[in-house]
Amino acid sequence: KAGVTQTPRYLIKTRGQQVTLSCSPISGHRSVSWYQQTPGQGLQFLFEYFSETQRNKGNFPGRFSGRQFSNSRSEMNVSTLELGDSALYLCASSLSSGTGVEQFFGPGTRLTVL
Amino acid sequence: KQEVTQIPAALSVPEGENLVLNCSFTDSAIYNLQWFRQDPGKGLTSLLLIQSSQREQTSGRLNASLDKSSGRSTLYIAASQPGDSATYLCAVSGGGSNYKLTFGKGTLLTVNP
Prior knowledge:
The complex is a heterodimer. Chain A is mostly beta strands. Chain A contains no helices and 11 strands. In chain A, the strands form 2 sheets. In chain A, strands 2, 4, 5, 6, 9, 10 and 11 form a 7-stranded mixed beta sheet that branches. In chain A, strands 1-3-8-7 form a 4-stranded antiparallel beta sheet, with no helix packed on it. In chain A, a hairpin with a 3-residue loop joins strand 4 and strand 5 (about 40-50). Chain A is globular and about 35 Å long. In chain B, strand 4 (about 30-40) and strand 5 form a beta hairpin. In chain B, strands 2, 4, 5, 9, 10 and 11 form a 6-stranded mixed beta sheet that branches. In chain B, strands 1-3-8-7-6 form a 5-stranded antiparallel beta sheet, with no helix packed on it. The mean pLDDT of chain B is about 95. The interface between A and B is medium-sized, with 25 and 25 residues.
């Protein structure tokens, strides 16, 4: 069974631009969560989508948004990029929503903002 | 608010040594605790998941324990190898947080040949 895939793997953008990252969950998984990883803050939860609906949201500004499609694939968008948005963005999928459900992580998208 | 702390932040050991990584969390009302491994610039690989009702889980040379009441978990690695060099992350689910997982900042392990 194929794992979680994320595209692109690497991105370089400049301040003020916007970016869209994509995540395809494991087949049959309906929940997708997004995390940001930086050296200073570590791994932080961004949001979770289940059945095309945002279920939970972390403490990030409104520039960070996402959506989920009917095939469970998810996209994350960051508008008006700032230098501090440079990070590894990880996507995780799970069979269902709810606390305590095991998640499986993708390889991440490395975003660099210049 | 759930907070997860991992000690030490970095650890360097000679090959063959047994070692223990520590993880503590502030709210004991968790659903489960998971240990991950992360190689530089890569995603997370799940090593062990311990449900809140369990005391420990084992996989090969790895053994993870959970003491929910005291808010602590340990990851024991037996007979360490250079290939074990990576960052090890502890994460909890639940515990007063609606976040899917709350992570510690990790322990960077280096196993020297």
